[in-house]
Amino acid sequence: MKTALIKQMYDVFGPWAGVKWADTSARKLFEVWPGKAVYWELTCILRGDWYIVPQSLESEYAKDAVHKVPGRAELIEKHVKNVTPVREIPLEEYDLVITFDPILEPPKGSRTVFGYYVQEHWDPLHGKSRRRPARNYDLFLNHMMDSREELRSLPQAIAFPYLHDAPMVRGEFHPERRELAWVDWRTAMTLANRRLGDSWCPEADAALERLREVLGIEVRCRTASHAISYAISSTPAWGDAAEYYRELAECRYYIAVGRLAGAGQGLADAAAVGCVCVGQEDAAYHRLLCHPACLCTDMVQMTRKLQAVRQSSELQREILAWQDEKLEEHFRKKPLELLARAIELKRKS
What we know:
Elements lengths: L2 E6 L31 H7 L2 E5 L6 H8 L4 H8 L16 E5 L12 E5 L6 H8 L7 E4 L13 E4 L6 H7 L5 E6 L1 H7 L10 H14 L2 E3 L19 H10 L1 E5 L9 H9 L2 E5 L3 H6 L5 E2 L2 H12 L2 H36 L1
Parallel strand pairs: 1-2, 1-3, 3-4, 4-5, 5-6, 7-8, 7-9, 9-10, 10-11
Helix pairs in contact: 6-7
């Protein structure tokens, strides 16, 4: 399916330059991608063309990510390239258009399927979209996975995760595996008794040190990036998302347990690079991906389960096979089938 991916200029996620898939590659995308890796695998799976359009919707996410941070709007204006007016995008040439937040007025009568993610689940746009997609859109792609799973008609809000492709990721990132555990930053913040939205703090660093002692293993956590709003520094860190995958792929284990967990994007990244993932029962992606031996209810259970996993190479192999099967089923095959079904429904209508 021919796919266009469209975001606004002041959207810090994704690439900071409009680029056609034919003019780039999986690795080359990182040259214009300064922040979180979210949507990179989706881009590669769909072979999507990225368009950046002028700002038209001032969502709560845009206010939080840009307008609350002094100088960030000017930073974006300096570095974002290839901005395209909406009227110049050949929407009719695409089978599928995915936008990040409902930033378009999709044309009525089009054969193209129009869907959108809401960038932050705490944004009021998310709650409104769960009830019904925005005007003229066919799909609200609910990455929190708390919408209907079966596509029955259009328009519809649908449970739809961020996409992942383990073979592709491992083909790009395959450093030597080490006896390291990557700790999700939310786990450290939970141990530091902080709330979602709080900045990284010395107490979180201390919590990581305690965790090293309790687990008896060296741990990694991207503390520096979480000390900065949306991990966007005053000088864009081009290629940082690639470095994130490389560092993650060196780790044998991934730990994401704590009350601050969202849908679980980081755990899915870790499964894609081949980490043994220890997660929690109330996180959507964790329930889909984690082997029963690695699914926890609390921190105490996490320490016991991790120790049991570390002591059995046979169990580790079983866990990795389980994760690969679930990743392919829930984060690639089913979502792609859903999109194909949506295109079929749209054309029949």
